[in-house]
Amino acid sequence: MVYKVRIGGFRAIKPETVREKFRFVSCDPRWSFAEYTTRQTMALTHGYHKYPAKFIPPLAARLIEEYSSPGDLVGDPFMGSGTTLVESIIHGRRAVGVDINPIAWLISKVKTTPLEPAKLTQVLEELKESLPTDGEGRLIKAGKPSRLIHERIDYWFAEPNRSELEVVLDQINREPNDDIRRFLLCGFSNVLKTCSRWLMKSSKPTVDRQKVIPPLVPALLRQLQRMEQRNLLFFEEVRGSGPPAWAKVVNGDARSLPVKAGSIDLIVTSPPYVTSYEYADLHQLSNLVLGFATDLRELRQTFIGSVRAAEVEEVLLSPLAKLTVDRLTTANRIEGRGALTYFQSMQQCLREMHEKLKQGARACLVIGDTELKKVPVPNAEVFAETGERLGLELERVIKRCIPSKILPQTRDPRTGRFTSARKAKALAYPEEYILVMRKPKA
Ligand SMILES: C[S@@+](CC[C@H](N)C(=O)[O-])C[C@H]1O[C@@H](n2cnc3c(N)ncnc32)[C@H](O)[C@@H]1O
User: Fold this and answer.
1) At what angle do helices 57-67 and 83-90 cross, to 10 degrees?
2) If you compute the radius of gyration of the chain from its CA atoms, what whole number of angstroms results?
3) 370-372 and 375-377 strand pairing
4) How confident is the model at residue 13 (pLDDT cuts 50, 70, 90)?
5) How far apart are the first and last CA of the chain?
6) d(Cα 113, Cα 102) in Å, to the nearest integer?
7) Which sign, positive or negative, has the C-alpha torsion 254, 255, 259, 262?
8) Taking residues 401-426, what's their average pLDDT?
């Protein structure tokens, strides 16, 4: 049977099943955003902090413009570094974001909080004066480490950055204004990897033995200066745009969104992937140094998609999810268990989204398919099938080709895990899907 399919939507003979809705969707170049430069995608507060698998801002912006109106409440249950929240505010929407990663909370909170520019300039000047350095950028009075932040910090940081870390952190923590202190902490967090033995660009925590490690204070001051310029632009952008900036930013679980049932007008989100990034490991420097976590093992268990994710009690609704888990279990028992927990957890998240959406409102999920142990893992179709069984109609499937210049990572074809572009033989997500799912009106 032949279906006529309009780019990005369904027409004529209406496909009925999820499988049919996917079958004839081809890459829509309008959703690649290949023309955007890094400078543009890092504009405003978007460039404050590195974060894996960030949204490209125009993608979030287009979904927000297309499916919501000014004043609406836009939610992101996996907010990461807060791209959806920032774009919501710029477009005059209210926003609510949740992430289990404490550092994601800090980044998103800071990125959605415009600061009065003159006040910020004054604080930055005072901070600079309080951290005098010699000709090599070393703190003049660093002192000895007074307390052990965490044994792993001693592993990652070499002297003198190790000692300077505490002096700088103490100085930042003296700032009485919460918003400004968080701004400083966000900048501090973003230079931690650069100023440690961490192998940059690695998707796993790896020591770089050849690294020439820059001094901490100059790196921090440069970072804060760049953020200051971005804040100025964001401040002006938000001040000129109707309703006041408003974002509720929560460190919590996507399975329990902090809003009333039936209150969200639009969800724009990109879920984590199964056994891909270990966010708890990747952000260990920030979470440990800032005191957001002390036990990485405990932290890992809360992340959906982690190999260490805690087990979940939930009967899978999607036949394709069950089939995928069975195939994976045959190939490798541990991967099978990981996929089961992942699909179970994501099913709980989709149920929560359905519950918190208004009637007639939409959830837009950005997700790519993947492969583990040579077994295809069709995430997009599984989520679509699960959503439909929970009462979310699959209204539209958009396939976007990701321009190679912004492909964040590649996958190791043997394990299916993210790896460095240098080592990998296969690209991770040359394409991904945007699923537009709608909660029907009663
Ligand atoms: C693909 S990233 C989102 C990136 C985001 N769109 C951005 O632009 O930065 C997925 C996020 O899901 C978060 N996550 C994993 N498990 C979670 C859970 N149980 N509840 C909420 N967030 C979770 C991870 O910490 C990560 O930030």
Assistant:
1) 50
2) 22
3) antiparallel
4) low
5) 32
6) 17
7) positive
8) 54
Residue ID of nearest Cα to ligand 1 atom 13: 78
Give the Å distances, CA to CA, from 208 to 196, 212, 367: 9, 9, 32
Which residue in 48, 23, 200 sits closest to 110, CA to CA? 48
Determine the distance from the C-alpha atom of residue 212 to the mean position of all C-alpha atoms in its chain, rounded to a whole number.
Answer: 29
CA of residue 214 relative to chain centroid, distance: 27
Give the residue carrying structure tokens 């991770």.
428
CA quadruple 271, 35, 233, 75: dihedral, nearest 10:
-20
Q: What pLDDT sits at residue 278?
A: 86
Sheet containing strand 426-427, strands side by side: 418-419, 410-411, 426-427
**Residue 356 — φ and ψ, nearest 5°?**
-90, -10
- Ligand 1, pocket-test mutation among 45, 99, 269, 409, most atoms within 8 A of CB: 99
pTM equals: 0.91
- Assess whether the C-beta atom of 409 lies below 6 angstroms from ligand 1: no
Residue type, 294: T
CA dihedral sign, ordered 100, 103, 106, 112: negative
Indicate the Cα dihedral angle 256, 335, 329, 397, nearest 10°.
60
Reading the block at residue 118, the tokens are 């003159």
- What is the three-class DSSP state of 426? strand
| Lowest mean pLDDT across 217-221, 240-244, 293-297, 426-430 | 426-430
3-class SS at 76? strand
* Phi, psi (rounded to 5 degrees) for 254: -65, -15
Q: Give me the amino acid identity at 440.
A: P
| Secondary structure (DSSP) of 273-324 | PTTS--HHHHTHHHHHHTTS-S-HHHHHHTSTT-TTPPP-------HHHHHH
Which ligand 1 atom is nearest residue 98's CA? 21
| pLDDT at residue 16 in the model | 75
Question: What structural domains and CATH numbers belong to the chain?
Answer: 18-112+245-438 (3.40.50.150), 117-235 (no CATH)
Q: What is the dihedral of CA 206, 212, 216, 218, to 10 degrees?
A: -140
The CB of 254 under 6 Å from ligand 1? The reply is yes
Q: Nearest-CA neighbor of 442 among 358, 331, 353? A: 358
Closest C-alpha to 48, from 203, 256, 230, 281: 230
Cα(80) to centroid(ligand 1), Å = 5
- Which secondary-structure segment (H or E) carries 227? helix 216-239
Give the Cβ contact number of residue 242 at 10 Å. Answer: 9
